[in-house]
Amino acid sequence: MFEKISGSDDQPKPTYKKVCRFIETQDPVEGLEQEIAYISNLYGKFGQNWWVVEKYVNMHKEPDGYYIPVEVFKIILKSGDRFQVAFDISSFFGADL
Fold first, then answer.
1. 1: in domain
2. How many structural domains is the chain composed of?
3. Is residue 2, in this structure, part of any structural domain at all?
């Protein structure tokens, strides 16, 4: 689910290798909490073992050609390693509009 990034890989991509697809809430705040909990489950406490370097919404092109909204987190671990992860946010993206 996580793609290790370095140097020139820091630009947004329209297609991600893997997208986390477990968020089923329509509440954006709850969705964000689930994303943070997922990363924390893997890497430890947010703000102590890992930090968010950048977070943005992008569109991901599916194999069938359709696009879905994804929230991308670029994180840095205490070790200095950097990763990015994309979460499918189609269950709540734009729900509060």
1. no
2. 1
3. no
Write out the two tokens for 97.
């509009």
Domain assignment of residue 3, yes or no: no
Give the burial class of 8: count Cβ atoms within 10 A of its Cβ; 0-12 exposed, 13-18 middle, 19 or more buried. exposed
For the entire predicted model, the pTM comes to 0.78
14-49: pLDDT as tens digits: 567 788 888 888 888 899 999 999 999 999 999 999
Sign for the CA dihedral angle at 40, 42, 44, 49 comes to negative
Short-list 31, 32, 34, 38, CA closest to 91: 31
Beta strand pairing call for 67-77 and 50-61: antiparallel
DSSP state for residue 20 in the 8-state scheme: B
Give per-residue pLDDT as tens, 51-71.
999 999 999 888 888 888 999
